[in-house]
Amino acid sequence: FGTMTGIEYDDFLDLEYEPAATDLTCEFTIDPAADMSMEAAASRVASESSNGTWAALHVDEDELKDLGAVACEIDGSEITVAYPAALFEAGSMPQILSCIAGNILGMKAVDSIRLEDCHWPESIVSGFLGPQFGTSVANEKLDAGERPVLATVPKPKVGLSTAAHAEIGEEAWLGGVDLLKDDENLTDQEFNPFEDRLTESLAARDRAQEATGERKDYLVNVTAETTEMLERVDLVAEHGGGFVMVDVITAGWAAVQSVRKRCEEHGLAIHAHRAMHAAFDRLEHHGVSMRVIAQIARLCGVDHIHTGTAGLGKLANEDTPGINEWLTGECHGLTPVLPVASGGLHPGVVDQLLEALGTDIIVQAGGGIHGHPDGTHAGAKALRQSVDASMAGESLEDYADDHPELATALEKWGAETPR
Ligand SMILES: O=C(O)[C@@](O)(COP(=O)(O)O)[C@H](O)[C@H](O)COP(=O)(O)O
Ligand SMILES: [Mg+2]
């Protein structure tokens, strides 16, 4: 036997430690339990999320590769933990999350803990495919030019027949929308089966492309049990679709990585819906931030992901501009992701939305199009007009003077944020 060494919680705290370039560093907000100091709590976070446990261990140094993380910074209730790259399996997001967002979120040593941010080293990023198209879909697969890509979800979100779904899609595409999108809970139910919906919607797409001269496409929801989901991805390619949509949180990151591989073979772009994200990120002091969820999604290879409306829509969300900046910024050569603003949007808030988030986004409106007093086609035209006005630097009110669909929308919704 070689030298026996002891491993205990204190070994995972070193405030002098400078993270190596190959370390993954994570920032957590923690609230230590009543009888626990920040230092003690921080060391337990680093220990339990790498290779430590509560009991002092005696191990043979020759037999053990030192994979311990280090709590290396404490700043108020914020701590930074550095993880050696060798702790992780290259290219496996579930394994990484089982470390940095695993048991530690349930430890008694802290009353609450939130994973706020990660700094991903090249050594880890290089193990992931990243997005295939990302922001380039706007002009590689569509004809958006400088303006935002426009998308719509037929409403009501479920219950429509296949024929009604495709017809609404055609109306919206003809009105100026680029992408038809399934709702997060529409998959392969009897009232609107997956393959029928796919073929009829793509046929409507082709007619709308013919009529408008603009490329259009369909974000069809393939979310299902993984092998079934991969078969649906193949069906989309077989029938000439260019995109798939996945509920990334409910399907799970392992499944997302499998879909990404399959989409590489077919040249399909992936739209990530984040249903259930609020279970992780809604509370400010506990869970996993949307910023980290967005980072995970980019590494796993989605091309678009919902990131919120900068407070203008119906859903609570955090720091959309900051998250979008990370998604479109430099990260060891990863393709930038196209952020999606959605949830309670309508033509009356588009100017403020583009002011807050810029134009390299997807703007999705469901109720904001299909709730238009004159119906889907007029609703789609009104949304397109609101974008055209903003791109031209004209106020929505002035532009509405000779664009009746927009005028009707402003009359109905003004610039209100629905609740
Ligand atoms: O079901 C809905 O509510 C939506 O289809 C929007 O519909 P409306 O356009 O009719 O509001 C989207 O799923 C949400 O935007 C998702 O939230 P987020 O984008 O925050 O992930
Ligand atoms: Mg929805």
TrEMBL record:
Residue numbers annotated as active site: K155, H273
Needed co-factor(s): Mg(2+)
Binding positions (Mg(2+)): K181, D183, E184
Cited InterPro entries: RuBisCO, RuBisCO_III, RuBisCO_lsu_C, RuBisCO_lsu_C_sf, RuBisCO_lsu_fd_N, RuBisCO_lsu_N_sf
Cofactor descriptive note: Binds 1 Mg(2+) ion per subunit.
Site features described as Transition state stabilizer, chain residue numbers: K314
Assembly and oligomerization: Homodimer or homodecamer. In contrast to form I RuBisCO, the form III RuBisCO is composed solely of large subunits.
Protein's recorded name: Ribulose bisphosphate carboxylase
Organism: Natrinema limicola JCM 13563
Gene name tied to this protein: rbcL
